[in-house]
């Protein structure tokens, strides 16, 4: 795949998408989001790809939306434009998505990281939702995902003041999974991706779907959904392989079937 604003790479079962607008700290303009969605479409369709790592560069994962695109936009234009569909596409990606974050991760960049399933952060990472300083509010999931991750009161402080938090704060508050030195960021992200990619692909996708469902449904509805997915997993060849490997005391070889 050839893009202007992102770089892609596949190594075994792990694909990488790198945001590549360094002059503007990887600001998320419409073209970048379209290319990101196109890459996710391709990786979803590729049975060899089991996990995707999304990253930026040392200075910034993404410093936010491209504010120049907001000038002159009307409420109707914002509601009817393609912006919401792009974010819905990311949310609907069924395979595990790992954010590897270094430097600025602000506004839409923070929302993009939170839309991923796991976040590995460099010690240099800085997270925040500074939209309030522009007279607007987070509009790509920030007001919904951030409280679920860090709690109401911490989210309120971040969103209402526009303050930034460090990688260590983000770890202590439950926003990120791991914090590592900058030089170890990608190695750590890839190690996590390869570990997940070694598991049964269908079960991984079902488990991701079940966890995401838990975030927006009552417990009884979520339990019923989990029970159904659990039953579906019993129809896979990987389940048979996993059970046989356990009984035979060997490492399973999963095929994604």
The main sheet orders its strands as 1-2-3-5-7-10
The backbone outline, from C-alpha atoms, is globular
CATH class placement of the largest domain: Alpha Beta
Q: Tally of extended strands?
A: 10
Unreliably modeled segments: none
What's this model, at a glance?
The chain is α/β, with parallel strands linked by helices and 257 residues long. It has helices at residues 30-45, 75-80, 83-92, 108-115, 142-150, 152-161, 167-173, 185-197, 201-214, 219-233, 237-247, and strands at 6-11, 14-19, 51-55, 60-62, 97-101, 104-106, 118-122, 126-128, 164-166, 178-180.
What do you see in this structure?
The model has no long low-confidence stretch (mean pLDDT 93). This protein has 2 domains: 6-197, 2-enoyl-CoA Hydratase, Chain A, domain 1; 201-247, Lyase 2-enoyl-coa Hydratase, Chain  A, domain 2 (Orthogonal Bundle). The chain is of the alpha/beta class. The protein has a 6-stranded mixed β-sheet with strand order 1-2-3-5-7-10, sandwiched between helices. A 4-stranded mixed β-sheet has the order 4-6-8-9. It has helices at residues 30-45, 75-80, 83-92, 108-115, 142-150, 152-161, 167-173, 185-197, 201-214, 219-233, 237-247, and strands at 6-11, 14-19, 51-55, 60-62, 97-101, 104-106, 118-122, 126-128, 164-166, 178-180.
Describe the secondary-structure layout.
Elements: E1 6-11, E2 14-19, H1 30-45, E3 51-55, E4 60-62, H2 75-80, H3 83-92, E5 97-101, E6 104-106, H4 108-115, E7 118-122, E8 126-128, H5 142-150, H6 152-161, E9 164-166, H7 167-173, E10 178-180, H8 185-197, H9 201-214, H10 219-233, H11 237-247
Parallel strand pairs: 2-3, 3-5, 4-6, 5-7, 6-8, 7-10
Antiparallel strand pairs: 1-2, 8-9
């Amino acid at each position: 795949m050839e893009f202007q604003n992102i770089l892609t790479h596949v190594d075994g079962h792990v694909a990488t998408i790198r945001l590549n607008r360094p002059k503007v700290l990887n600001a998320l303009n419409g073209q970048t989001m379209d290319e990101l969605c196109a890459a996710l479409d391709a990786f979803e369709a590729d049975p060899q790809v089991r996990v995707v790592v999304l990253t930026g560069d040392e200075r910034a994962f993404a410093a936010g939306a491209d504010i120049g695109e907001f000038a002159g936009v009307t409420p109707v234009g914002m509601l009817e434009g393609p912006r919401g569909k792009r974010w819905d596409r990311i949310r609907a990606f069924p395979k595990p998505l790992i954010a590897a974050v270094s430097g600025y991760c602000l506004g839409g960049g923070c929302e993009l990281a939170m839309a991923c399933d796991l976040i590995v952060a460099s010690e240099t990472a800085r997270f925040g939702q500074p939209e309030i300083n522009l007279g607007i509010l987070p509009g790509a999931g920030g007001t919904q995902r951030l409280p679920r991750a860090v709690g109401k009161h911490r989210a309120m402080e971040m969103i209402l003041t526009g303050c930034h938090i460090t990688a260590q704060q983000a770890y202590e508050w439950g926003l990120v999974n791991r914090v590592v030195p900058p030089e170890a960021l990608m190695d750590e992200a890839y190690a996590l991706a390869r570990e997940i990619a070694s598991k049964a692909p269908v079960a991984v996708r079902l488990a991701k779907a079940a966890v995401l469902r838990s975030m927006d449904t009552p417990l009884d509805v979520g339990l019923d959904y989990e029970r159904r997915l659990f039953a579906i997993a019993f129809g896979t060849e990987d389940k048979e392989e996993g059970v046989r490997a356990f009984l035979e005391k060997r490492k399973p070889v999963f095929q994604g079937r």
